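Figure 3 (text version): structure tokens given as input.
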């Protein structure tokens, strides 16, 4: 297979590959999916040929994203995604808990959406400051 990219497209592809591998493997510990690491290594291995030597390094005999790459702001995108997903999931879970039953009718789905929206507004305004858990 041959794929032709501009340098800018290649750089964006590195971001996408890193983010994808992070999501798939970062929580797996020793149970990583090695196929994704191989693809990441393959793509980052081309960085030097594109004048982007600073983006890759060899660690334990493997080509990996460099510390400069991983500490250069890519995790801000991941954090933004994680925050959005966290609050969306939390809002839906709380709304479903409040309703006590899964919605079955269009009116119940509308109520669920209203409750989710209310939680989202609360989280956008106050974050988690007003969440209390009785233990």
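Below: residues designed for each position.
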């Amino acid at each position: 297979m041959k794929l032709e990219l501009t340098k800018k497209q290649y750089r964006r592809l590195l971001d996408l590959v890193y983010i994808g591998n992070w999501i798939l493997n970062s929580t797996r510990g020793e149970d990583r999916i090695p196929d994704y690491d191989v693809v990441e290594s393959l793509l980052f291995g081309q960085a030097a040929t594109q004048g982007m030597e600073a983006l890759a390094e060899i660690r334990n005999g493997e080509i990996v994203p460099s510390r400069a790459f991983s500490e250069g702001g890519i995790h801000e995108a991941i954090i933004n995604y994680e925050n959005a997903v966290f609050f969306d999931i939390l809002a839906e879970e709380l709304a479903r808990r409040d309703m006590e039953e899964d919605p079955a009718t269009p009116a119940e789905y509308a109520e669920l959406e209203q409750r989710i929206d209310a939680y989202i507004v609360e989280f956008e305004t106050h974050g988690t400051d007003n969440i209390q858990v009785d233990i």
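Residues 45 and 63 are 6 Å apart (CA to CA).
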